[in-house]
Amino acid sequence: xxxxxxxxxxxxxxxxxxxxxxxxxxxxxxxxxxxxxxxxxxxxxxxxxxxxxxxxxxxxxxxxxxxxxxxxxxxxxxxxxxxxxxxxxxxxxxxxxxxxxxxxxxx
Length: 107
Description:
By secondary structure, the protein is an alpha+beta fold. 16% of the residues lie in helices and 41% in strands. The strands form two sheets. A five-stranded mixed β-sheet has the order 3-9-8-5-6, with no helix packed on it. Strands 2-1-4-7 form a four-stranded mixed β-sheet, with no helix packed on it.
């Protein structure tokens, strides 16, 4: 019975170590017709939370390796989340306000 318990602990530790780093959720605010950051570097699997903290609507566009995404109209106060599952440089823009620019590097 002791061997079973030890095997279970070792198996659990192996699973945790083999799963790699845990994905993170990164929050970038949209306020004043701009993103709160212009450049960020994240890991593959991380989630970008692009909350609309502005008084106007936005439209998140994401372009990058194998990705062409259009969120549609994002009204004030509404969240928008996207999981980056590919490495590379991604351009995040607002389809309504062309001066809103965020570059996301995924490693």
